[in-house]
Amino acid sequence: MRPSYHRLPFLISLLSAMLVSGCIGNKYTHSLQQVPPPSQSTAGIPDYSDSTVTVAVGEHYGRSRLHTFFYGKHYRPAWTVPVSFRVLDLGTEKGGLTPTQQGGSRQTMNLRLENPEGKEYVLRSVDKDPATALPERWQQSYAANIIRDATSATHPYAAIVLPPMAEAIGIHHTKPELVYIPHDPRLGEYLENFGGMVALFEIRPDDDLSDEPGMGSSENIKSTRAMLKDRFFENNSDIDARYYLRARLFDMLIGDWSRHEDNWRWAQYKQNGVKVYQAVPRDRDNVFLSSMMRSSPGSLCALVLRSTFRLTAIT
Fold it and tell me: Do residues 308 and 222 share a domain?
């Protein structure tokens, strides 16, 4: 048995084309902001009430035909088309918002804000940069370029269509809104990272949200760890398993594969002296993921290698 190498020239040409299409015209940086800061800072506190901004949330995902042939078209048109967004006015929104803490995963940036009543809200960047998880020496490499490009397989506006669907099947949900974060001096120390960014704005599920029907009007919203601590160490707590199953089936329906523990909150209720927890899904940024199998570099190489290095019998 011996491998056949007659297709090696084709394989080398294919790999070269993939490398070229992935590297040439590399427009990626590690910024998640859509609008650069102004050349001159404005004096005083600006008034952003009734203001809008028109911008593409991911202009850098517009690539050549050669690139999209190898790496997929995905949702690039949605990322690159200019859309009008409401400008977030920190002075008037929800009675006035004060930034309190920056957070986020390796690919998403978020900013917590608090209003005068102590209710918390969160801003999450629409664009993602999973390449930041790579070692620093790989940050400007072909690998980083392709990993960042894979964000185009997610739809930038998918999260805003989910609340009506969640209501229809009867599960708790947040209600995100798309906003533009201006270069507002009231951002303080967070201005450099968040000014000029399009983000999802929503309430942060925590503590007493009895005035929020989407959260089930629960007086006590807990994190996953706090809920599990109650469940394992107290005899008077339980999880609504059927409700959780309904939420997980909804995840499968919309293709939401990113459901780690921090993507859940738990609404607590009292039923006959027992604390019952119902799931509250949040951070639905990865729904409706476009299939990448057709055009990913790995799958193309696998198909070619399978035929190129097939075993042939020696006669």
Answer: no
Q: What residue type is 310 in one-letter code?
A: R
Of all helices (H) and strands (E), which one includes residue 168?
helix 162-169
**Residues with Cβ within 8 Å of residue 180, at least 6 apart in sequence:** 34, 35, 52, 53, 55, 85, 86, 87, 88, 197, 198, 199
Residue with the two structure tokens 């102590």: 118
Structure tokens at 233: 């160490």
Burial 93-125 (b: 16+ CB within 10 A, else e): beeebebeeeeebebbbbbbbbeeeebbbbbbb
Identify residue 205 by its one-letter amino acid code: P
- pLDDT tens by residue, 202-227: 999 888 888 888 888 898 999 999 99
CA distance 38 to 32: 17
Instruction: Count up the domains in the chain and report the number.
Output: 2
* Residues in contact with 295: Cβ distance below 8 Å, sequence separation at least 6, in sequence order: 68, 69, 70, 71, 72
Give 4's contacts (C-beta < 8 A, 6+ positions apart).
308, 309, 310, 312
Q: Are residues 120 and 204 in contact, defined by beta-carbon separation less than 8 angstroms? A: yes
Considering the domain architecture, whether residues 109 and 11 belong to the same structural domain is answered as yes
Give Rg (Cα) of the chain.
24
Residue 243 is part of which domain span? 206-281
Taking only the tens place, the pLDDT of each residue in 49-80 is 889 999 999 998 998 888 888 888 899 999 99
